Amino acid sequence: MRKGSVKEVLAKIKYDPHEDEGEYWVVIEHRGSYRNVKKIPVELIELAHGYFFVGEVQIPYHRILRVIRKDGRIVWETKKL
User: Fold this and answer.
1) Rounded distance, CA 19 to CA 35, Å?
2) Quick check: helix, strand or coil at residue 63?
3) Nearest-angstrom CA–CA distance, 20 and 18
4) Is the distance from CB of 10 to CB of 16 less than 8 angstroms?
5) pLDDT digit string, tens, across residues 12-71
6) Are 67 and 24 in contact (CB under 8 A)?
7) Statement: the pTM of the whole predicted model exceeds 0.90
8) C-alpha distances in angstroms, 74 versus 10, 27, 29, 55?
């Protein structure tokens, strides 16, 4: 697992030319329930300060539960799980 904040991990995936953002997914907590999760391709998100966008939808970073590769490997996971 990579070290650092989720924003740092996502920035590396999105902006490092050695990474392929199409290989990663973000798993988020949808509407406050761990049982209701949603998987979003990293290539669809735009990073901002305190939150990220998927199209017009603004999602705070604290909703991210984990960042995974398409092969299922976890590269970042929240401590609250």
Assistant:
1) 30
2) helix
3) 7
4) no
5) 999 999 999 999 999 999 876 667 899 999 999 999 999 999 999 999 999 999 999 999
6) yes
7) no
8) 13, 10, 16, 25
N-to-C CA span, the chain: 15
Beta strands in the chain (DSSP E): 24-29, 37-41, 45-47, 51-54, 57-60, 64-69, 74-77
Q: Are residues 70 and 24 in contact, defined by beta-carbon separation less than 8 angstroms?
A: yes
- Count of C-beta atoms within a 10 Å radius of residue 45: 21
Question: What's the DSSP call for residue 31?
Answer: T
How many residues would you count in the chain?
81
Alpha helices in the chain (DSSP H): 6-15
pLDDT at 4: 85
Q: Tell me, what DSSP letter sits at residue 14?
A: H
Domain range annotation of the chain: 6-77
